[in-house]
Write a structure and sequence with these properties.
With about 550 residues, the protein is of the alpha+beta class. Helix content is about 55%, strand content about 15%. About 35% of the residues are buried.
Length: about 550
């Protein structure tokens, strides 16, 4: 190329100069192309890295938020099962026991027997909140299954109140327990309070209080601070006794009896008492100081212990966060996906085979192909509106049922399956068709005996990815009523049901703090389902893929 560009005059002085000029231009352009390619690769890798980092941060935040929901605190109680409350009718009939038995009253009686002072110190209602009404259902089922337990004492575990469970796990400001390092003298006051004194006994607590609430109301010239419902709380516990500090200084404090056995005058040896710090003021949290104190006492005795949270997988939805589970949503999702798979995949694959192999190429098939491609980009809520108008309103199909949800998701998945299946059919080399036809096979035999089996990995991959997409849909299912509260696991395709994305949506909209962790855990369960389905698609492709 350089020789062709040289002047024909034979001027030897001009040849090297021209050659050098053209060579410099070529080299500059090559360097520019290499630089552009390097920049493109850099920007591409940067975008990929940013996407991976963003996904990692999102996944990490969900995982961190869900950590408290992996375990649940349970309280172990010995409950005397009296006939008067467990079986008021005396018929020993399991159905009557479950319907008329006052098992919540039995649990309250067991707690009152454990803390007899609650009836006189005004904390009986706080004590009763340790176990919510629905949490006693396992005891009711146990007694109904074996009426011979009536008249005996049954020791069983009960799921703890969700707010107290959250505090014991560090939520709502948490509860910081510190052992007392010095001896403490206790003096009774005429007004029923106690004066506590010890050299620097409360200096660390006072510093913590001032760091937590700069300039708290009630500060006094001597450096003491008054504790109210608007300030963080400090409790003092010893064995089965808990008192609440109402005024604190570095070496002295004033306290009032809170729960448990009455505090007596005398000396508390170092290490025999401890302070409980609650950073969130009592006026701003759903757990009173008395309920937190009962939780600490039972945990110190070993009556409260942490267990793996299987409730979220074995229970259905509930108004109580500690009892809510995903069982109904998981079964509803499976039933809905079964309907979707067995309607969308056969229809989608059949349509793809016809359009790709048999349909004539004319304006009508072109119009159909354009509409299929457009339907793949239609917002999913439009399919929900269509399903509500056609299947529920016109055909009268059951509302909030997997059969309707599956059909709606079929409409949404069909375009994706058709497009993926046609691409898989196109990927089969024409030589396969020609060889089959050349040995005497009909067109139908060539397609179904040779082309379709070779295209099946791509078809299955596209179908499973469409199912995974359908599993994560919420909007179309909201439109057909699958947002209803479902307390029972659906037993069939026409029973009322909900699905995982809708359950997550409902949990996220509830105000209690305990729902946050459970919502994040539900998201993790949904992600596991999605990862499993995508992993299945990858495995199928690699197992059946043919290289040409």
């Amino acid at each position: 190329m350089t020789d062709a560009a040289l002047p024909p005059s034979g001027d030897s002085a001009g040849v090297p100069k021209a050659a050098r000029s053209i060579s410099a231009i070529v080299q500059a352009r090559v360097r520019a192309r290499y630089a552009a390619e390097t920049r493109f690769r850099f920007f591409g890798l940067t975008m990929v890295a940013l996407a991976v980092i963003a996904c990692g941060v999102l996944l990490a935040s969900i995982l961190i938020q869900s950590t408290t929901a992996f375990t649940e605190n349970r309280v172990t109680l010995s409950v005397p099962v009296t006939a008067a409350k467990a079986d008021p009718g005396g018929a020993r009939d399991p159905v009557a026991i479950r319907q008329s038995g006052d098992f919540q009253g039995l649990v309250r009686d067991a707690l009152a027997a454990r803390f007899p002072q609650a009836a006189t110190d005004g904390s009986a209602d706080d004590l009763a909140e340790l176990v919510t009404g629905l949490a006693v259902t396992p005891l009711a089922r146990q007694v109904a299954a074996d009426p011979a337990l009536i008249g005996t004492t049954v020791t069983t575990d009960f799921i703890l109140n969700d707010d107290l469970d959250l505090i014991l796990k560090g939520g709502l400001g948490g509860m910081d327990v510190r052992a007392g390092q010095v001896a403490l003298s206790v003096t009774s006051q005429p007004d029923g309070t106690f004066a506590l004194a010890g050299a620097g006994a409360f200096a660390a607590d006072l510093d913590w209080l001032r760091r937590t609430t700069p300039g708290p109301d009630g500060s006094e010239p001597a450096g003491a601070v008054a504790l109210t419902g608007a300030t963080p709380s400090i409790l003092l516990a010893r064995d089965g006794t808990v008192v609440e500090l109402t005024r604190i200084a570095a070496g002295t404090a004033t306290a009032r009896q809170l729960v448990g056995a009455p505090l007596t005058a005398g000396t508390l040896e170092s290490g025999s008492w401890r302070t409980l710090r609650l950073a969130l003021p009592q006026d701003g949290r759903p757990v009173t100081n008395a309920l937190a104190a009962y939780g600490h006492l039972l945990k110190a005795e070993g009556a409260i212990s942490a267990h793996a949270n299987l409730t979220v997988l074995t229970h259905s939805d509930s108004n109580e966060p500690e009892l809510a589970g995903l069982a109904a949503a998981i079964v509803g999702s499976l039933l809905t996906l079964i309907v979707t798979f067995f309607t969308a995949v056969p229809l989608g694959v059949a349509a793809a085979i016809y359009l790709e192999e048999f349909a004539p190429k004319n304006r009508w098939t072109d119009l159909i192909e354009v509409n299929i491609n457009n339907l793949a980009a239609v917002p999913s809520i439009v399919f929900g509106l269509l399903g509500f108008a056609v299947f529920i309103t016109f055909f009268g199909m059951p509302r909030s049922a997997p059969i309707v949800g599956g059909v709606v998701l079929t409409l949404m998945s069909l375009p994706v399956i058709i497009i993926a299946s046609r691409a898989a059919l196109k990927a089969v080399p024409p030589s396969i068709r020609e060889a089959a036809l050349g040995v005497g096979a009909s067109k139908m035999q060539a397609i179904f005996h040779h082309v379709l089996p070779l295209a099946m990995p791509g078809i299955l991959t596209g179908s499973i990815l469409a199912m995974a997409h359908a599993l994560g849909e919420t909007a179309p299912l909201l439109m057909i009523g699958m947002v209803a509260f479902i307390a029972d696991v659906p037993q069939g395709f026409t029973d009322a049901a909900t699905v995982l994305p809708v359950e997550i949506y409902m949990w996220a909209s509830r105000p209690e703090r305990a729902w946050d962790a459970r919502t994040a855990l539900a998201i993790m369960v949904l992600l596991l389902f999605m990862i499993a389905m995508n992993g299945l698609a990858i495995w199928l492709r690699r197992k059946f893929e043919r290289r040409w």
